[in-house]
Amino acid sequence: MEYYVIDAFAEGIFRGNPAGVCVSKKELPTELMQKIAFENNLSETAFLVKCGEKYCLRWFTPLFEIDLCGHATLAAAFAVMNFTEPSANEVCFGTAGGELSVRRDGNMYEMRFPERVPEKIEVTAEITEALGIIPGEIYSGRDLVAVLESEEAVRGFAPNYEKLGKLDKWLGICVTARGKNADFVSRFFCPELKAEDPVTGSAHCSLVPVWKEKLGKTVFEAEQLSERGGRLYCRHEDNFVIIGGKAILYLKGEIFLQE
After folding, report:
1. What is the rounded CA–CA span in Å between residue 237 and residue 241?
2. How far is Cα 160 from Cα 176, in angstroms, rounded to an integer?
3. In this prediction, what percent of the chain has a pLDDT beyond 70?
4. pLDDT tier, 257 (very low <50, low <70, confident <90, very high otherwise)
5. Which of 74, 114, 122, 132 maximizes the CB count within 10 A of its CB?
6. What average pLDDT is seen over the chain?
C-alpha cells in the first residue's frame, strides 16, 4: 500500500502538521486502519480508496477515528494531485461527515468545509479552573474555544492536561486571540492524547465564524502558534469555510501487510 507523510499548512519542511496518507486499492477493515494509525503514531492518518469518481476518505488518530480533519484532508489531496492523479486540479472526498472538495491553485490547496458555528456560553468556574486562566469569552461546539486578550496570552498559555481532561464534553481545547501578523492566532490541545496539535484545519470551521462576527470581515489570514507553526488562508462563503494552505512531501514509501 502506498504511504506518504506530508507536512500540511507548511511553508517548508518540518513545519505545519505532518499527516500520514495511505492509498489503498480496496477498503480496509476499521480495526486494521486503527492499528496502522497507531503504528504510524502521527496525530492523524488518512485512508483513501477510489470509489467511482470520488475517493472515500477516513481519518484516524493513534487511538480513535474522528469525523473531520483539515490537515490530513489537505495531505490526502496533495497525495492524489501529485502522485495518484497528477493531472487533476480538484478532488472530491466522500466522508462520514459528507462530501468534501479540495481545489489546487498553484502550490495552494483550498478545502471547502461546512461551517460549524459554536455557541457562546457562560465562562464558568469549572472551565477557568481547567484552563488555569480567565478567558474573555467561551464558545462551545465540537471543541471548546476560549478567546483570550492578546497574542501573547495565546503564546504563553500552559496546558495542564490532567485538568483539561475534565472538560470531556469537547474533543479539543482551542485558545485564540487577534494576531499581530495575522487576523487571528490560535493554539489547539488534545487532552485525550495529552498533546498540542501543530496546525488544526478543522478547528477553523468554528474559528472563522467566531472571528467573522468579531472583526466584521469574511477573508482571513490565520496563524497557529505551535512549535512547528502553520499559516492558513481562510474565507467564509455562505455556510462554508474555505481553508487554504500549502503542503510539502516528507516521505514516500510502501506499507507491507501480510494477508
Report:
1. 6
2. 17
3. 100
4. confident
5. 74
6. 95
pTM of the model: 0.88
Position of cell 485538568? 163
Which residues are paired to 140 by β-bridges? 119, 144
DSSP per-residue letters across the chain: -EEEEEEET-SSTT-SEEEEEEEESS---HHHHHHHHHHHTSS-EEEEEEETTEEEEEEE-SS-EES--HHHHHHHHHHIIIIISTT-SEEEEEETTEEEEEEEETTEEEEEEE---PEEE---HHHHHHHTS--SEEEESSSEEEE-S-HHHHHH----HHHHTT-TTSS-EEEEEE-SSSSEEEEEEETTTTEEES--TTTHHHHHHHHHHHHT-SEEEEEE-SSS-EEEEEEEETTEEEEEE-EEEEEEEE-----
Q: What are the cell numbers at 147?
A: 478567546
Residues contacting residue 77 through CB under 8 Å, at least 6 positions apart: 91, 93, 102, 104, 109, 111
The residue with cell 504563553 is 156
Find, among 228, 195, 165, the residue nearest to 44 by Cα: 195
Residues designated as active site: 44
